[in-house]
Specification:
This protein is α/β, with parallel strands linked by helices and about 325 residues long. Helix content is about 45%, strand content about 10%. An eight-stranded mixed β-sheet has the order 3-2-1-4-5-6-7-8, with helices on both faces. Bound molecules: NADPH dihydro-nicotinamide-adenine-dinucleotide phosphate.
């Protein structure tokens, strides 16, 4: 893209952000508001950054929010702050990369609320900033971003409360994980074609892709194997999240009325948080917006298996 093209893209983006900021101020009508103060929303990794803002905004809309964090002190402090604003927020410790932690959280949710209505899988890690592209922490990145999200979904699917408004799962992902992204995609054409076709998509294919990548990292052969070029381990983890979102949407599609579960993912943009070293061009509040918008979509507009950014559907 030339200099002029970049400027036009920047101007379009700024216009869109202004439009979203206007939309955010519009109150939901009573017809659109399907939720109540009894509606339970769980947000992972919510002690800071985008997760904290998603928890904040959902609570401002009047939901009961379970703010979870792996570090109990940080999580409790974040929840106390929101409760200080008069919001209905409760803290619970949860490390998505530890099966025992997810299981004990699930037990607590079952006993206290009998399930949940909205699950936001936000917890994530990335160890690259700027022009770095190290895969030193690839195992942790895949274990948290992909397997952590997958574990949450596997355990909580049966605990999403039946409702005519539809239970909702939202995965916080990234455009870096697009199958067919212009600049950052899987180079292997055969694999890419398989990943793009719904019929070929399976849990085995996704898990094998992740395992294959990690195996190549261990062997030191990953660099010559056509993985996404930027923040490779992180991009592979988010690619897997996107694929799993599509797969689960298909698996959940046949559920009967009253038991529907809608699952989508979104990219918050390039957000000024600890993860980006406070670089980025959007605030955490702006980054949370599309996530909250999807989680609260009025029933008539519900959709599943889609990828969003800036309140619009984008391609996988
Ligand atoms: P932050 O680093 O600010 O927040 C990440 C959160 O995830 C922290 O609360 C962190 O906890 C938590 N976390 C990490 N590992 C675990 C774990 N095993 N169990 C539970 N919680 C965990 O980053 P962001 O707010 O920017 O990121 C939020 C999400 O948005 C991530 O999924 C990220 O990949 C995604 N994203 C961010 C973008 C950006 O530009 N910032 C762009 C695209 C996507 P702790 O404080 O203990 O480390």
């Amino acid at each position: 893209m030339g200099k002029q093209g970049k400027e036009r893209a920047k101007a379009r983006r700024e216009q869109r952000l202004q439009e979203i900021s206007r939309l955010r101020k519009l109150p939901y009508s009573s017809v659109e508001r399907w939720w109540s103060s009894e509606t339970v929303a769980v947000v992972t990794g919510a002690n800071r950054g985008i997760g904290y803002e998603i928890a904040h905004q959902l609570a401002v809309h009047g939901l009961r929010v379970i703010l979870t964090a792996r570090d109990a002190d940080r999580g409790r402090a974040a929840a106390d702050g929101l409760r200080g604003e008069g919001l209905n927020v409760e803290f619970r410790q949860l490390d998505v990369s530890r099966p025992d932690s997810v299981e004990s959280f699930a037990k607590w949710i079952a006993e206290k609320y009998g399930g949940l209505d909205i699950m936001v899988n936000n917890a994530g890690v990335n160890f690259n900033t700027g022009a770095n592209n190290s895969v030193e922490f690839a195992e942790e990145v895949i274990a948290t971003n992909y397997f952590g999200t997958k574990r949450m979904i596997e355990i909580f699917i049966s605990m999403m409360r039946p409702t005519t408004s539809g239970a909702r799962i939202l995965n916080v992902s990234s455009r870096l994980g697009r199958v067919n992204g212009r600049r950052n995609r899987v180079g292997d054409m055969t694999l890419r074609e398989q990943l793009l076709k719904d019929d070929c998509l399976s849990e085995e294919l996704i898990d094998d892709m992740a395992a294959n990548f990690l195996c190549q990292v261990k062997e030191g052969t990953w660099a010559s194997n056509e993985w996404p070029q930027m923040y490779t381990d992180y991009s592979v983890s988010k690619l897997a999240v996107n694929l799993y979102t599509r797969l689960m949407a298909r698996r959940l599609a046949d559920r009967p009325e009253g038991h529907k579960i809608y699952i989508n993912c979104y990219c918050p943009g390039w957000v000024k948080t600890a993860m980006t070293g406070w670089a980025g061009n959007a605030s955490a509040e702006e980054g949370a917006d599309t996530g909250v918008w999807i989680a609260l979509l009025p029933c008539q507009q519900l959709t599943t298996g889609k990828f969003f950014a800036e309140r619009r559907e984008i391609s996988f």
